[in-house]
Fold this sequence. Notes:
Four copies of one chain form a homotetramer.
Chain A: E1 2-21, E2 31-39, E3 45-50, E4 57-77, H1 115-122, H2 127-141, E5 143-144, H3 155-161, E6 163-164, H4 166-179, E7 184-191, E8 200-207, E9 210-214, E10 225-231, E11 240-243, E12 247-258
Parallel strand pairs in A: 5-6
Antiparallel strand pairs in A: 1-4, 1-11, 1-12, 2-4, 3-4, 7-8, 7-10, 8-9
Helix pairs in contact in A: 2-4, 3-4
Amino acid sequence: MKLAITAALDYRLGDPVDLMLHIEAAAIPEQLIVNAVLDVGNCEYFARVAAQDMIGDRIWLRRGGELNVRYRTTVEIQRDLTDYRTLDKVPMHRLPGETVQYLNESRYCPANKFIHFVQDEFGDVEGGAKIGRMRDWIETHFTYVSGSSDAETGALDSFVERQGVCRDYAHVMVSLARAAAIPARIVSVYALGVEPQDFHAVAEVFLGGAWHLVDATGMAKAGEMAKIAVGRDAADISFLTAYGEIEMLNQRVTVEAVA
Amino acid sequence: MKLAITAALDYRLGDPVDLMLHIEAAAIPEQLIVNAVLDVGNCEYFARVAAQDMIGDRIWLRRGGELNVRYRTTVEIQRDLTDYRTLDKVPMHRLPGETVQYLNESRYCPANKFIHFVQDEFGDVEGGAKIGRMRDWIETHFTYVSGSSDAETGALDSFVERQGVCRDYAHVMVSLARAAAIPARIVSVYALGVEPQDFHAVAEVFLGGAWHLVDATGMAKAGEMAKIAVGRDAADISFLTAYGEIEMLNQRVTVEAVA
Amino acid sequence: MKLAITAALDYRLGDPVDLMLHIEAAAIPEQLIVNAVLDVGNCEYFARVAAQDMIGDRIWLRRGGELNVRYRTTVEIQRDLTDYRTLDKVPMHRLPGETVQYLNESRYCPANKFIHFVQDEFGDVEGGAKIGRMRDWIETHFTYVSGSSDAETGALDSFVERQGVCRDYAHVMVSLARAAAIPARIVSVYALGVEPQDFHAVAEVFLGGAWHLVDATGMAKAGEMAKIAVGRDAADISFLTAYGEIEMLNQRVTVEAVA
Amino acid sequence: MKLAITAALDYRLGDPVDLMLHIEAAAIPEQLIVNAVLDVGNCEYFARVAAQDMIGDRIWLRRGGELNVRYRTTVEIQRDLTDYRTLDKVPMHRLPGETVQYLNESRYCPANKFIHFVQDEFGDVEGGAKIGRMRDWIETHFTYVSGSSDAETGALDSFVERQGVCRDYAHVMVSLARAAAIPARIVSVYALGVEPQDFHAVAEVFLGGAWHLVDATGMAKAGEMAKIAVGRDAADISFLTAYGEIEMLNQRVTVEAVA
């Protein structure tokens, strides 16, 4: 599967501000970057650093006036698509060290509060089957409502309100998985089939010795997503962080399957 | 400076539970482990994995009945003790990639909320001088009250309540630093001069190209601490995490300077 | 049904502090105070004011040293025991003015967040039947765990954690009712059958033109409770509020059925 | 002082919904309603009930389609304008019963958390002088930023963020007052001098045996406001509450001094 992806972001900046941009499909074994062009215009500086878990780059920029970002890439997905529902939980003492942080509570995922719910509702199955049941439970009980959450909304709120956007679905999914002692992180992606098309966020769980994508919204398939960034939750995967005042003018993402 | 350290932890476990122990002084360049003995008794398994930022090890255990941990070490501190107040802030685009996560909000450190306070109160100084002023502000305005916080208490609560224990002081310090776009993490340590003696937690900020310890409680000095673990906040540096029911029977830490 | 009730509270106060005591069974039509004795020792002052909704009295005291409260009463319950499950919801425009505040969100009952859950889970029934289904749902899904909550715990936490003590059960019950636009308040009571015996808290909902007691813990029956105080949530019905430092030494409640 | 007030609210409703409207200047001794016209169009029903503390009316409506509310009144303010800064705190045991609820924590005002801050910062003055210092502190340290808060924002957030709109200023003012054991409530008002002109919210504190208006934003004067409603916090004084989906089309308030 090859995905042709474009992203256009236009912002008004005023005085020069430091910005962190994180919008490129990551160059990692599971997805081949066939070609890529990123144009951010002239900047005071432009620097790349490896992002969380060495997946993708964070790009630092500094400029004022107007920022017009144009990104275009073709990515060939070569992901292992084993059905995670068939996989076993990795015993805790065999977890790779770098996955352990994804058992911990994070900004939007106070996972420990969900321990009793997870035991009560999903206590009869384990590993990938448990993750599958959690995912289905979320999709069944939640309603996707654009604009129903904001930068303050955490998994606790979403779980009670039973609605949200992709990041909220992912936060609840991540929290439930961690409450079952299964490492879980959030992933920002470009994905086919997202309506309305935009940056998308899904969960990823560590089962059977590898990470597996799980989309509780049901909109995207693991084989049809290009990963941008991973993190503990939305606090880590913002596609644009400004250290100063900015105003969004326009944002447009397209994702298409190509031959 | 050499520190002789002991820790004794006794827990009642009942049925076998998975446990994560994180109490050893880390073997890192800035502190030489002269000798160390860790005794956890017989376990179903015992596994070590590298912890956050490759500083120290997390140890996985599984056992039931009673857990009696005895740890003894001598650590020679060889830390660079440059006064952080004299150091410059690293421009964001020159931050090493692995420090960037420490600008983000975390479970107990919703740093963005403090941006206006930090600008108003500390806007006239930069870098290490700013960190110094923040530290002094916390020490002046806060009261150390044992038992005044719990596992739910975050920097927002502590900032308003103006009291807490070491982890709360560290959470506020970390939040203020991040709100000034200076990477900041929490560090669990064994430290001289902590009253009552116990595991201690302090902040660490990235200034002048390196990490520097900052104790807002004023109890411990950078040259008299042995680092155990680092993390985004207390969610990452728990010295004992149990995946099941346990009861603490006894906990005792000693730290002494030795020749 | 007559209840013989005693309460003994012993506190160490140090310097004189202002105290608000709220422990007497209320003299209201639905319960006849057959006899009552309240002894609080010598105080700098002792003043009574009518409490929330004119149900019961708040008593202001000021004293130092030690406070020993002894209260003893016999109350004859004459409450209308119509099964609330058979009653209709009062149309909003016919709600008495003083009940409307009990539709609003309060400190521990952020009811609006529960609107979708309530529609999804209980949308097929109305009025008293809906309240009954909510109550049963809570009792089925929650576990009563002494010490599992504290003064910070709200209905959002309890709903996710699925455990708590009587006040937590009441907060969730109140929140669900308000989310269905049915006025709901909390009531502190002396009740038969509470294990361990202590002050108890239940919900009360406005159905069919009157208030009806609902105990989601299932421990107490409407005909076997003596009301002490009502309020929006636990913030209003504290049995002892101290405006200064105090230490609890002893607290004992007994409730018995008498001929 | 006479105020000529108009309010126009236009909403799109779709299917018929229950609505609670609370926008009329209250008919209370301190302000004479010289004349008033309220036009809400045709409704399925229209019912008035006395609001919190018998100040003003809540109006229940039910209608679908479009709601166009037009309100016009002239109010003569006859308020006692004693400077609250000169007044004494009422000893707690002399507080009228109905003021005691305003010492308690509420949805947006978790006042107990502010006790240490209030002691540290304002511990050297009492009564009205203390309230005055609190008010000045808020005005000095906060910035009024339209759109900086939402329905989730409480006094804890605002205190840390040091910004907000009128309701946030009022919530912090109310919280600080209650933390000093001075009854405090929120009041929605029409006020001269509010920029941009809109419904306004201020605090009211109980000093010297009466309620006194306090505007921490500094925009409105006690003698130039017409009270609409009082409550524990913003949860009680919403000018329009819809029990169903609605969309705001237009809202306009004017307040002018007239001869």
